[in-house]
Amino acid sequence: MKLIARVKLQPAPEQHAALLKTLEAANAACNYVSDKAWQDKVFGQFALHKLCYADVRTRFGLGADVAVRVFAKVADGYKLDKRIQRTFKPRGAFPFNDRLVSYKLDKRIVSIWTMAGRQKMPFVVSTHAAKLLEGLRGECDLVYRKGEFYLYQCCDVDEPPTDDVDDFLGVDLGIANIATDSDRTVHQGKAMKAVRFRHRKLRTQLQRKGTKSARRCLKKLAGKEQRFAKDVNHTISKRIVAKAKDTARGIALEELTHIRKRVTARKPQRATLSSWSFAQLRVFIEYKAKQRGVPVVAVDPRNTSRTCPCCGHIDKANRPNQSAFSCVECGYSAHADWVAAINIGRRASLSKPHVSDTDIDFCR
Predict the structure, then answer these.
(1) Which residue, of 29, 59, 167, 258, has the greatest Cβ tally within 10 A?
(2) Average pLDDT over residues 38-44
């Protein structure tokens, strides 16, 4: 299993300038190679290497390993789409392999290739990331963000064997409630919605004002909402995985890929739907579950909140409003998100020839 450790570099002023020059030269080389690739319709890494390796070395003064990384970055960009010419920001992230970057973990020193020669500089890292660096493997990305340099290092983490489970903890993902599990635990989304609404309103006001101080304030606010949402999703995912591990169950999630294309939303709800970070929460749950050997299964989300867990009757009328479920067939009623979580957990479980005791308890 691979995870990313973020390493913050602490270069001296001259080293900072050397790193900045290196990043700009490497991305300028990427744009040069991208132009060549677009003109000659050559998009493979080895074909690009053969086409303009010598030009890149002499024109931009890059080392052999950095030049190879240039071709890899351009080829990766065209793997996504060959219909549009790829361009690269002057200070965009650039990949470095293990020959260009080496660590002395005990002394917290990193050695990195630059246009001014190899530079050794101290770095700082969190306790969690320091443990990850013990298994560092492969390449890293040099990132320049808000005047600081970071290395995003790929690390190998031991993955325990997946537990053999008979039952699953169903988890319903939503907007009003970020996550609801089949044990009736609800992770509410009120705080998240309030923060998103406040930031959206403030951004609109500042963009409309358009003054220099307004732009400065917008720059200061950039990423704040995203970091808050990320922290909330980390917290929720930790609790869900811990509960599944402690109760010897797997985790069942909805397959919500391309959900925004499958649903229609009224205009006041579009901004809320577009900012719904369900994919990030799912990724967090999946990698944390892997670290603890908890299996994760994705199931079809159709009619999970319209199916009665007692009689199995499916009807749109079973869901009179967002939070309520009331079966028109047998009269069973409960919170709609909890009902959906029950159905999600059942779909992940193996089919059984008879109704289990836990299924009967849901109907009481």
Answers:
(1) 29
(2) 92
Would you state the pLDDT for residue 193? 84
In 3D space, the residue among 276, 272, 279, 278 whose CA is nearest the CA of residue 200 turns out to be 272
Q: According to the model, what pLDDT value does residue 196 have? A: 87
Whole-number Cα distances in Å, 13 to 7, 19, 91, 110, 121: 18, 10, 17, 16, 11
User: Token digits for 284?
Assistant: 């967090």
Name 171's bridge partners: 181
For the chain, how many residues are written?
364
Write down the pLDDT at residue 360: 39
290: CB partners within 8 A, 6+ apart? 1, 159, 296
Q: Which long-range contacts (CB under 8 A, 24 or more apart) does 318-322 make?
A: 322/176
- For the chain, list the domains and their CATH numbers: 2-156 (no CATH), 168-188+232-362 (3.30.420)
Question: Given pLDDT bands bounded at 50, 70 and 90, which one contains residue 351?
Answer: very low
What is residue 100's DSSP assignment? T
Beta carbons of 170 and 344 less than 8 angstroms apart = yes
Task: Annotate 191-205 with DSSP letters as a single string.
Answer: HHHHHHHHHHHHHHH
